[in-house]
Design brief:
Layout: E1 2-4, H1 19-23, H2 26-54, H3 70-87, E2 92-96, E3 100-105, H4 113-117, H5 119-125, E4 136-137, E5 146-152, H6 155-166, E6 171-180, E7 187-195, E8 203-205, E9 221-232, E10 235-236, E11 250-254, E12 270-278, H7 285-293, E13 308-309, E14 312-313, E15 319-327, E16 334-338, H8 343-351
Parallel strand pairs: 1-11, 5-15, 7-11
Antiparallel strand pairs: 2-3, 3-5, 4-5, 6-12, 6-15, 7-8, 7-9, 9-10, 9-12, 13-14, 15-16
Keywords: RNA-binding
Protein name: Pseudouridine synthase RsuA/RluA-like domain-containing protein
Domain Pseudouridine synthase RsuA/RluA-like: 101-291
Length: 353
């Protein structure tokens, strides 16, 4: 097993308020004071937490924080996704029976928009409201992630499927197009910690920190992902998902910050197509592990991905939920579903050979 290595504001006399303050109604001044106070409280809390991390009282993340540019990019993408979600009217159904539906979510649409876009929901809405199915999202995908989602139609089935997802009994594969340093391995398994402090971002932590408490009261949890490289710079061969045996591949246990690639900057712009097999279901798991391994997902600005590639701005990250396999919660039969490939995946695969 390989181990990878507070400025005070000027005092203003209440007898001679500033012109701006004098023009503000009392309620506006109260809101401004409240907002400013909340901001100072949060800033103080974050500073205190950082100090405790530095002193070793809290675990220190081994992946970087969100870059400053991500704030504006994420806001713009969120506004676009809100508009798209509001106009989304017809979900692409991959499979449907009386208990559940499997749908192909497009990128740039929020998960909840799929519920009212299901044909069965629209048909019931046009008739008797009492016949509307009791729809639940059994799993979720990030806003910009495309691919398979399961929607159940009754509480009993929902409980069973949510339990299956929570207990990692649902087998999943994802495709990701990454830009970064080319891996020297074909298949690998990475194990690390995962967590977020009260006011922070999701980060990778060392495996030795799993179970330790973070600022805000949450704790570091374990996460594990298996990867296989399908192609680098158009060279490779696309193949169907396989049963990647853990005993047959190299395993990385994260214990420290990622390797410094600054001396090999000429290699940082390779285009890498990978398939991910998440063994746990942590938030942003695949995105975090791709960042840690040195090849962030294209367009994933939060986690170091490029904003522009080949002269074109990325309007989201290139991550696709490719397949789902699970036991049907009612019939007990094993079922597997595959989603159609997104355009970016088809473009890359067409150049491989």
């Amino acid at each position: 097993m390989t181990k990878v290595p507070l400025l005070l504001s000027p005092l203003v006399s209440p007898r001679f308020p500033s012109p701006a303050r004098a023009l503000q109604p009392p309620c506006a001044r109260r809101r401004a004071v409240t907002a400013a106070g909340a901001g100072l409280v949060q800033e103080a809390a974050m500073s205190e937490a950082a100090a405790l991390v530095a002193n070793g009282e809290y675990p220190c993340p081994v992946s970087p924080p969100y870059p400053a540019v991500s704030k504006d990019v994420e806001l713009r993408r969120a506004m676009t996704a809100s508009a798209r979600s509001g106009a989304y009217a017809s979900a692409a159904v991959v499979f449907e029976d009386e208990w559940l539906s499997v749908v192909d979510k497009p990128a740039g649409v929020y998960c909840d928009a799929l519920l009212s876009a299901l044909p069965c929901y629209a048909a019931a809405a046009a008739g008797d409201p009492a016949t509307k199915p009791n729809l639940h999202l059994a799993n979720r995908l990030d806003r910009d992630t495309s691919g398979l989602m399961v929607i159940t139609k009754c509480n009993k089935v929902a409980a069973k499927l949510v339990k299956a997802f929570t207990e990692h009994k649902v087998k999943k594969t994802y495709l990701a197009l990454c830009i970064g340093y080319p891996p020297t391995w074909e298949k690998i398994r990475i194990c690390s910690g995962h967590g977020r402090s009260k006011h922070g971002a999701w980060r990778v932590y060392a495996m030795s920190d799993v179970g330790r408490t973070l600022p805000g009261g949450s704790s570091v949890r374990d996460m594990s992902t298996k990867f296989e490289v399908l192609g680098i710079n158009g060279k490779g061969q696309f193949r169907e998902p396989s049963n990647v045996n853990i005993d047959d591949i190299e395993s990385i246990t994260v214990q420290e910050k990622a390797a410094d690639h600054s001396s090999t900057d000429d290699l940082k712009n390779h285009m890498i197509l990978v398939r991910a097999y998440p063994q746990s279901g942590r938030t942003h798991q695949i995105r975090l592990h791709c960042q840690y391994l040195g090849f962030p997902i294209r367009g994933d600005v939060k986690y170091g991905g490029v904003i522009e590639w080949n002269g074109v701005d990325c309007d989201g990250h290139a991550l696709h939920s490719e397949s789902l396999s699970f036991v049907h919660p009612v019939t007990g039969l094993p079922i597997t579903f595959r989603a159609p490939l997104p355009s970016w995946a088809n473009e890359v695969i067409s150049t491989m050979g």
